[in-house]
Automatic annotation (TrEMBL), chain A:
Protein name: ABC transporter ATP-binding protein
Keywords: ATP-binding, Nucleotide-binding, Transport
Domain ABC transporter residue range list: 4-252
InterPro entries for this protein: AAA+_ATPase, ABC_transporter-like_ATP-bd, ABC_transporter-like_CS, ABC_transpr_MalK/UgpC-like, Mo/tungstate-bd_C_term_dom, NA-bd_OB-fold, P-loop_NTPase, Transp-assoc_OB_typ2
Species this chain originates from: Demequina zhanjiangensis
Pfam families to which the protein is assigned, alphabetical: ABC_tran (PF00005), TOBE_2 (PF08402)
GO molecular function: ATP binding
Entry annotated with the keyword Cytoplasm: no
Lineage: superkingdom: Bacteria
TrEMBL record, chain B:
Membrane topology category: Multi-pass membrane protein
Pfam families hit by this protein: BPD_transp_1
Similarity annotation: Belongs to the binding-protein-dependent transport system permease family.
Name this protein carries in UniProt: Carbohydrate ABC transporter permease
Lineage of the species this protein comes from: Bacteria, Bacillati, Actinomycetota, Actinomycetes, Micrococcales
The entry's keywords: Cell membrane, Membrane, Transmembrane, Transmembrane helix, Transport
Annotated localization: Cell membrane
CDD domains: TM_PBP2
Transmembrane annotation, as ranges: 12-33, 77-99, 111-135, 141-162, 183-210, 245-264
Organism from which the protein derives: Demequina zhanjiangensis
Broad class of the protein's primary localization: membrane
């Protein structure tokens, strides 16, 4: 039985629908990534799972049980807020220990004054202090343990927020862009740490990001969203190799998948497989599945516009002859040994095994028969 | 370790202005003390000496004999503390609802709170007296607590509500995620952050209860029930009272209020929510 199940779940604020009805299910132990551009509804969806935002219609199930009405506390989740939401009056140590302390307090112990005495007592319990130290060590927060959040940098605050959620042992981890404010090195390290944690605890993670590298490297499955609509659900490989539509094709992958418009295909029918040329579809092909050959060879005639060397490889931007503008530009990922210069005329050859076709009108993927091979 | 904000260097002018202001505000207080320590005879026959005279203790003790100073002050304390506790309790809950919930009639409640401030308190004197007669709250300190709290509540609620509006709601959400029950969220997360507003409201409510005269003078008839405000005015009206005695009682009346303010004002600071959320 899947741990998380969405059945026609939707969200609207008044008349504006921010999340259209969708179905999905998440198995126990999965690392699900919600990927999409800013404002597409990722945080909204995550908050609905947490019970922080009300579900407008549809049902959300945990282990087969409808939880729409469940209180946040009953859901047993850890949550990293996109805005951190640190307790400003508490030190970093108190922030991180807070969930552990709360787990151990009885309802009547929260009375004013009495509560603060009990909280500071609990803070010194070896099992709590040890756990806080361990997680602070892991997130390099030890030097800041006695500071307040107001005296930390953005990245340090983000790590405190992460620490506060990872210190517990919930059944579901919900993380809203937990690495967005970290520098590249720390981000890479944290990516590895979170993946390792996921493997160690074996719990379900739902992770929001707009960074596709994070999505591709960490996810067992990705939900790609745009404008409140689920565009595709699949493993990183599926999403990368078989994008469901032109949005996913261009959003996932860097540089994005090239989309060659039907008129260019029609103008050079010999450059493509016969089935493709006749289909009238948009041809999608990733930069690494394109090769540049010298003029005269069979293929699509292009002119080299820009050559960008990134070290091991080069990204070569070309323009089909007779075209100009960003729309028709095609990017090729080539080895750095390829010597091409600006303005040079070449031909572009496609790897027919790795071509995606999209309906010219709707942008939806068209099933292919002709490219088997 | 809390970071100290760098203090600006004070210019001589700032210091001068501060000295002048202190003198203007402080002189009457000094003169009150000075008068309290003088002898009645000197006050009525010679120009009052500028420096306090310290030799008149016996005369003062004689003058104060029969004035129920202790019961006056303790009655005032009961009224003021009762008013403060009741006001803060109700105002905090009311402010929370006004700040966090979007309910029908929310605007109306805010308006009604303010409209009470447009009517002079004297207007309610007779109706409340009539009401309290039936309830047995006349000649009863708790009746005064109730009246004072009612009058202090609107402004206190407003002050605390503004304080709560400044606390990001996500902190409460975070506390819920961290498995804190509502009472825990209130006491561990919210209250420490609205403490400055609560302190400000408490000062207001305390002074309202401590200094209130009109209702106390009307509702309380027994001498043993007099709060200091009433007792002082009765004392001042009696031709037999000596000026040093009046000023001594006035000093004793003012001192607790000053102490309370000094204790509480340390908590009236701003900037407690720094670092809570991004941006
Ligand atoms: N309380 C609200 N009332 C009305 N609209 C809202 C509300 N909260 C969010 N929205 C809208 O819902 C949409 C989705 O917001 P959401 O915060 O889920 O985006 P997101 O994908 O997390 O974006 P980002 O990557 O920038 O965090 C946005 O268009 C936003 O304007
Ligand atoms: Mg978001």
């Amino acid at each position: 039985m899947p741990q998380l199940q969405f059945s026609s779940v939707a969200k609207s604020y008044g008349d504006t629908q921010v999340l259209e009805p969708f179905d999905a299910s998440v198995d126990s132990g999965e690392f699900l990534v919600l990927l999409g551009p800013s404002g597409c509804g990722k945080s909204t969806l995550l908050r609905m799972i947490a019970g922080l935002t009300e579900i407008t219609s549809g049902e959300l199930l945990f282990d087969g049980e409808t939880v729409n009405e469940w209180d946040v506390r009953k859901r047993d989740i850890a949550f990293v807020f996109q805005s951190y939401a640190l307790y400003p009056q508490m030190t970093v140590r108190q922030n991180i220990a807070f969930p552990l302390v709360m787990d151990r307090m009885k309802p009547w112990q929260h009375l004013p004054i009495l509560g603060s005495i009990i909280r500071s007592r609990l803070m010194h319990r070896p099992e709590i202090a040890g756990e806080v130290d361990r997680i602070a060590e892991q997130l390099s927060l030890v030097p800041y343990l006695d500071r307040r959040p107001g005296a930390l940098s953005g990245g340090q605050r983000q790590r405190v927020a992460l620490a506060r959620s990872l210190v517990r042992d919930p059944s579901l981890y919900l993380l809203d862009e937990p690495l967005s404010n970290l520098d590249a090195k720390l981000r890479t390290q944290m990516r590895v740490d979170i993946t390792a944690l996921h493997q160690k605890v074996g719990k379900t993670f739902v992770y929001v990001t707009h960074d596709q590298i994070e999505a591709m490297t960490m996810a067992t499955r990705i939900i790609v969203m745009d404008h409140g609509r689920i565009q595709q659900i699949g493993t990183p490989d599926e999403v990368y190799d078989n994008p469901a539509n032109t949005f996913v094709a261009t959003f996932v992958g860097s540089p994005a998948m090239n989309l060659i418009s039907p008129d260019i295909v029609a103008a050079h029918p010999t450059a493509f497989e016969p089935g493709i040329a006749a289909s009238g579809a948009i041809v999608g092909v990733r930069p690494e599945h394109l090769m540049l050959a010298d003029e005269g060879a069979p293929g699509l005639p292009v002119t080299v516009e820009v050559v960008e060397r990134t070290g091991a490889e080069a990204i070569i931007a070309c323009q089909p002859q007779g075209q100009e503008g960003d729309e028709s530009r095609i990017l090729v990922r080539a080895s750095h040994t390829q010597r091409r210069v600006m303005g040079e005329a070449c031909v572009l050859q496609l790897d027919p095994a790795h071509v995606s076709l999209f309906d010219a009108a709707t942008g939806v993927r068209v099933p292919q028969t002709s490219t088997v091979g | 370790m809390s970071a100290h904000s760098p203090r600006r260097k004070r210019s001589p002018w700032t210091i001068l202005v501060a000295i002048v202001l202190t003198a203007v505000v402080g002189f009457p207080i000094y003169w009150m003390l000075n008068t309290a320590l003088s002898s009645q005879r000197v006050l009525y026959t010679e120009p009052q000496p500028l420096l306090p005279q310290l030799g008149n203790w016996e005369e003062l003790a004689d003058d104060l004999d029969g004035v129920p100073v202790v019961s006056m002050l303790s009655n005032s304390a009961i009224i003021a503390i009762g008013t403060t506790v009741l006001t803060i309790l109700l105002a905090t809950l009311c402010a929370y609802a006004l700040s966090r919930y979007r309910f029908h009639g929310r605007g109306l409640v805010s308006f009604l709170l303010f409209s009470t401030q447009m009517v002079p308190q004297a207007v309610f004197l007779i109706p409340i007296y009539a009401l309290f007669l039936g309830l047995g709250l006349v000649n009863n300190l708790w009746g005064l607590v109730l009246v004072n709290a009612a009058f202090a509540l609107p402004v206190s609620t407003f002050i605390i509500k503004v304080g709560m509006d400044g606390i990001p709601y996500e902190l409460e959400e975070a506390a819920r995620v961290d498995n804190s029950p509502p009472l825990g969220t209130l006491t561990a997360v919210l209250l420490p952050l609205v403490l400055p507003s609560i302190a400000a409201a408490a000062v207001l409510a305390f002074f309202a209860g401590w200094g209130e005269f009109m209702y106390a003078a009307t509702f309380v008839t027994g001498r043993e029930m007099w709060p200091a405000s009433v007792g002082l005015s009765v004392l001042a009206e009696q031709p037999s009272s000596s000026m040093p005695a009046i000023m001594t009682v006035a000093t004793l009346f003012a001192a607790p209020a000053v102490v309370f303010f000094l204790l509480v004002q340390r908590h009236i600071v701003s900037g407690l929510t720094a670092g809570a959320v991004k941006g």
